[in-house]
Write a structure and sequence with these properties.
Elements lengths: L1 H4 L3 E4 L10 H15 L6 E4 L4 H6 L3 H6 L12 H11 L14 H11 L3 H18 L6 H5 L1 H8 L4 E2 L8 E2 L3
Parallel strand pairs: 1-2
Antiparallel strand pairs: 3-4
Helix pairs in contact: 6-7, 7-9
Amino acid sequence: AIAEGNYKALLADETHDALNEAERTLLQNMSLLKHMCGGVFKMVVLAFGNGAASEVIRSDDQTGRRFVHYVLPGWGLDDEFKEFVWSYVSHFPLKLRSSDVLKDEFLAKLYKASWGVMDNFVKILKASAEVAIESGDECITVAHIDNYKDICNQCGYAIIKPTPDKKKPRREKL
């Protein structure tokens, strides 16, 4: 199916999860990656993940030599963060404009609550939107961020506290 589709790239997210696989499965996956980026397919392979993703790629010497490893900078409490949050929230089915989202206080609290981790701030925003819709408020406010622990628990979202690479993340005790 891939040969017939004329695909040019393969995107793999959460690559670090391959470390949870048996060694044989991991080696088979690395062999598949080598095959996809060489030979007949010559696909561009983009593999994303946390710091352990490099371990996965380097688990096979031949595969490890074929890839360049880049570390993307984390989020900062800056205009780029503000633009992302505003853009993300603007796609929620809220009936009212969430103007608090543009306020420095809101952004600082969101950033602190999420440790600047995209997965966390997306979960906090999604849970806040869900609660805003269910309550009839129809907009996200600073109060949602102030209560993010209860709101995330209510909506079933786990906020993960980042830890240094090579350690499993700890779930925040909510």
